[in-house]
Amino acid sequence: MKKNLTYLALFFAFFGILISALLVQYHNNPNFDSAFVQTVCGTDSDSGCSVVNKSTASEFAGLPLSLWGFMLYLLILFSLIYYLVTKETTFIVSVLWLSALAFIIDIFLFIYMIARLGTLCNLCLLTYLSTAGILIFSYLEIKKLQKENKISLIPSFSNLKSLSIPISYTILLSFVFIPVMGGWIYSMSKTAPSDESKESISNDPYKLISKAWEIFYKNFQKETAANLDDSEAPKKGGANPAIFVSEFADYMCPHCKYVGGMLKEVVNKHDENISVAYRHFPLDMECNPSIKRQLHQGACQLSYASVCAQKQGKFWDMHDLIYIKQDEWLKKGVRKEDLSDMAKAIRLNMNQFDACMAGDEPKKIVSKDITEALKLNITGTPAVYINGKKTAIPVGFFLEELVKAEFLRKKGKPSLP
């Protein structure tokens, strides 16, 4: 039974090492290709993992906090192995204290995430689970030892003098190996892969773009289309397009501004083969119940203003003007008079605009979009759906190629050369 409990603690230590290594990689490169991380954290820029990763709490002494956790789990792993090999209780007692200290830190970090950041990092929670597992099973192991023979809960490192010379040297080497391994993991997370195939592609920009496009389109084809209701959404583009883009966006989101400009350019070039629908998902607590900490105060009011402009047939005029003035909203906030000034600038009927803004209709329309977005598990913006398939934000070149590929597919021709 003794070994079984220790092996369980060993499992959690190994699990903690793996998750910490992923967190180190995520810290230095949030977009790295890992299906597990994308499943646990999501792919949105405002996901819990991303918010925590950008916070000041993600680093300690200039290094990722996850790197310190990685080295701590390595130390615990070695201590458990040495305990199993030597039966020296100093090792298991040390594990108990190390895991207890780590668990206390985890509690403070958990409170910080909830109270200060208003979110949860799912990948971080897995490391907290690892720490709790180690703490529980090392404690149970010590309780069993105390029943068999009284042992001190204070590590007695003087007992290590009785260990054989090979074991002693192995322990010393472990203390050297741990920071070396930590440094290797950290440097690997910041270094791009350099195998021959990737190097040959990176040396040829055309090959790099072609390979990226091929991967993008194959992933797009594999996606399952969602049943989106864009019937009441404002649209621009062709009546029978090859691709239909639904963009869930926030007027105060800088990346949404970029995507909006890119979509506008592509529609201007391929107006008959692409159609774009704008869907509202303001990251503002005023109208979005999924937002637990304020991100873009005033974004709901901007959405309402664009809905009221839509009622007068000038949605895209208001849409473009709001994005032009985005820096103003981010610096000084959104005021009622600003909304009126924009309405006047695009020559809206002000009586109708004011009545619309005072009514419930824009709130209902925005709320409907938010409700659908939440059903789709959207947590950040922009969220782009192409022909109903959630898609990584494509660059303009990819979007144009996608228009051509889907047009050929509809004609029954090969989509990829």
Find the CATH superfamily of the largest domain: VKOR domain
Assign an overall shape.
elongated
In percent, how much strand structure appears in the residues? 5-15%
The CATH architecture designation of the largest domain is Up-down Bundle
CATH top-level class of the largest domain: Mainly Alpha
Count of extended strands: 7
What distance lies between the first and last C-alpha atoms, to the nearest angstrom?
Answer: 62 Å
Instruction: State the order of secondary-structure elements, H for helix, E for strand.
Output: HHHEEHHHHHHEEHEHHHHHHEEH
Question: In the CATH scheme, what's the topology name of the largest domain?
Answer: de novo design (two linked rop proteins)
Number of helices: 17
Strand neighbour order, sheet with most strands: 3-5-4-6-7
C-alpha Rg, in Å? 28 Å
Average pLDDT number = 83
Q: Which structural category fits the helices and strands?
A: alpha+beta
Helix content: 55-70%
**Low-confidence residue ranges:** 192-198, 413-417
